[in-house]
Structure formats: C-alpha cells, structure tokens
Amino acid sequence: MVRRERKDLSEYDYDLPEDRVRLVPPPRRGDSRLLVVPRVYSARTEPMVRTVADLPSLLMPGDHLVVNDSRVIPAQAKGVTKSQRSVDILFLGPFGDSLSGTVRFLGRGIRPGALLRFFSGRSEVWVSGYSEEDGCFVGEYRGERPLSSELETEGEMPLPPYIAKKRKADPSDRDRYQTVYSRVPGSVAAPTAGLHLGEDLLRKLGEKGIELSTVTLHVGIGTFRPLADGDLDQHRMHSEWYYVSEETARGIAGTKRNGGRVIAVGTTSLRALQSSMILGQEEKEKRVLSGSGWTDLFIRPGHSFGPVDGLLTNFHTPRSTLLVLVDAFLGENRWRTVYEKALEEGFMFLSYGDAMLVL
User: Fold this and answer.
1) SS3 for 292?
2) Residue 329, CA atoms < 13 Å, CB-side half-sphere
3) Which of 47, 128, 213, 220 is the most exposed place for a label (fewest CB within 10 A)?
4) Beta carbons of 294 and 239 less than 8 angstroms apart
5) What is the H or E stretch that residue 314 is in?
6) Which ranges of the chain does DSSP label H, i.e. alpha helix?
7) C-beta of residue 359 within 8 angstroms of C-beta of residue 36
8) What separation, in Å, do the N-terminal and C-terminal C-alpha atoms of the chain show?
9) What's residue 3's pLDDT?
10) Concatenated DSSP letters for 124-169?
C-alpha cells in the first residue's frame, strides 16, 4: 500500500512565525479563510484564496463529505498527591462506564507508586507504572462515578500545548473546540478541520445536493507528536480506534458510481477511510469497507488513496505526521509551495487557524 520515498525529516521543516498561530477561534464557524488547492498540478491552476463559507459554491451536487463524529472528552483534570501537591493530568482513556479500571494519562512530577486524588476526593488513581513505548503513565482508577462522567462535568478541554502555554481553557472552548456533529465521546484532541463547519453551512451544503457521512476516529495525543530524529520509516504512530459504518461505505460507493467526488473533512477522517481500505487490500480495486478496530496507519508519500478525491484540512505544525500526510496527498513535495503561499497571503495556522481544500 505504501511506496517508501523521502526519509530526510528536514524536508518537513518550515518557519512558522508566532503571529501566524491563532490562539482563539474566529467569531463564527465558517469565518475562516480557505486556500483552494488543485490536487492535480497545472501551471494554469494556481491556489485560490476564498473563505470556508464559500464551500457550497466550490463543491458540486453529488459530491460527498466524510466527517469525523468523535467527541472531545474534557480530559484535563487537576489532582493532588498524598502530600497535597497539585498535579495537572491529561487522561488518555479508556473512557468507559466502569467505576474502576486501568487508565493511561500524561503528567509531570509523578512517579509510579503515587496515589492521586481528583474531583474533591471522589476519585483516585494509583500510578502503577510508566510506558516508555507510549510515553505515558498507567494507573488504576477508582471512583464514585465513572471517569467519563466526572470529566464531562469537572474536566477542562485539552487545548493543544501551544495554546495552553498562552492561556487557560475557558467555557467557550467547550463549544468551539468541538465539532457541531460530534456524538461519540473518546478524543483528547479535536478533529480540527471540522471546527469550521457550522449548522448553517451544513444546511446550505445539503441544499446544494452534497451528501454528508460520518466515520469515527478517536484522536489520541500521538497524532500531534512531532517526528523524532532519524529515518522517517522508523516513526510509529500511536494506535487510535476507528469505525466506518456500512451506511457510510455504501454511500461512498454510490457516490463514485454516480461520478461524484469524495472529500474527507480532516486528516482523521482520511485515516479512518484509509484504515478501512486496508481491511480489503487484497482486493483488485481499493474501496471503503465497513469495520472497526485500532489503527496505527502512518500515511506518507507513495500511499494509495483509493476513492478519496479531496481533503479539507488546516495548516499543520512543522515536522508533524499530519504534514507528511498532506505531502502524500498533494504529491511532488508541493506542500512547501502551498504553505509558502498561505504565509504570503496572511493565513493563520494550526487548530484554530484557517483551512485549505485540496480538490
């Protein structure tokens, strides 16, 4: 499925000025700017500067958007040690309905053997160890309520570290760092391309005859970790749970039969679709299949994208797996020219930033 090519990680470096990183969302969903990039290169088809609100005029009746309906858990919580020292924890799951069980989390100043208490003493976590492979702590949770219930009422939204260094999460982030169609709790980071789509815009797209389907991929912290030094082929993605329904698979197949285009909204939607295709990689023709499971798929240059024609995505950090994915989708190292164009035009980057449509 993957033809391995570039291995020099410096090819995914670029200079991102601090003032091009948006720390708060725009006033309304759909207000962000949009760089429309032709997937097939031609000297006559330069990228166009538009807005996300222009999507209904950029897409055609019969096109098909695929969105990630995973819901972000307010997974940031403050705990205290036995000596009453405060510690900040980011829970990584699993987020089940049990009153006890094994959990994974990130934190500083913690050692195996520690007992941490949360939520006014109603819950506690005994730190049983540290996983070098995953880069996180492992512990045993016990509480009066399930961890998922406690976090929904008491937790804070886990904003990206570059935002958290500048400001704390506020009540508005519970709404704006969440897609309007989120319904399946499980992510610890937002599928950010979907943050641009508001109810009014989705209604207009539907009126235009553009179909909307959902997949689920619970975004883990590993998606946003930078590439380590060394051979690109040595990078290993953290596993994330995904689900593609039979309805979505049938809808995509119907779109392709009718000559429509399939556009993934966000890199997470694209990874879910590509992971489902791997289930049927022995077939002569790549197609989206229904199914679920854990995926550690690392999409890099040479990847075969099957029936996916377009991608709506934000502008990503240097040396990230997301940038490598964009490179793979555009091909021919075109991402650098596109990003330079975005910087020249004053686009904003990262989670609350502007977007681009590759089509």
Assistant:
1) strand
2) 30
3) 128
4) yes
5) strand 310-314
6) 55-58, 147-154, 161-164, 173-176, 199-207, 246-257, 267-278, 321-330, 335-344
7) yes
8) 22
9) 45
10) EEEEEEEETTTTEEEEEEEESS-HHHHHHHH-B----HHHHTT---
Kindly tell me the sign of the dihedral angle through the C-alpha atoms of 155, 156, 161, 164.
negative
In terms of DSSP bridges, do strands 48-51 and 64-68 run parallel, antiparallel, or are they unpaired?
A: unpaired
Say which amino acid occupies 210. I
At 264-282, the pLDDT tens digits run: 999 999 999 999 987 665 5
User: What φ, ψ does residue 112 adopt, rounded to 5°?
Assistant: -55, 140
Type of residue numbered 298: F
Beta bridge partners of 106: 90
Amino acid in position 242? Y
Residue 175 has pLDDT above 50, yes or no: yes
Token digits of residue 134: 């995953």
Percentage of the chain with pLDDT > 70?
Answer: 91
Cα angle 280-324-8, degrees, rounded to a multiple of 5: 120
CA angle 328–333–336, rounded 5-degree value: 110
DSSP symbol at 108: S
Q: Are 214 and 124 in contact (CB under 8 A)?
A: no
For residue 325, the surrounding DSSP H or E stretch is: helix 321-330
Residue 133, CA atoms < 13 Å, CB-side half-sphere: 5
**Element containing residue 205 per DSSP (H, E):** helix 199-207
User: Quick check: 215 and 187 in contact, CB under 8 A?
Assistant: no
Q: Could you give phi then psi for residue 296, rounded to 5 degrees?
A: -120, 30
Q: Which residue has the tokens 């995509």?
A: 252
Please tell me the pTM assigned to this model.
0.90
| Tokens (6 digits) for 130 | 């540290």
The residue type found at 319 is R
Q: Crossing angle, helix 335-344 and helix 321-330, to 10 degrees?
A: 110
Q: What is the number of other CB atoms lying within 10 angstroms of the CB of residue 219?
A: 23
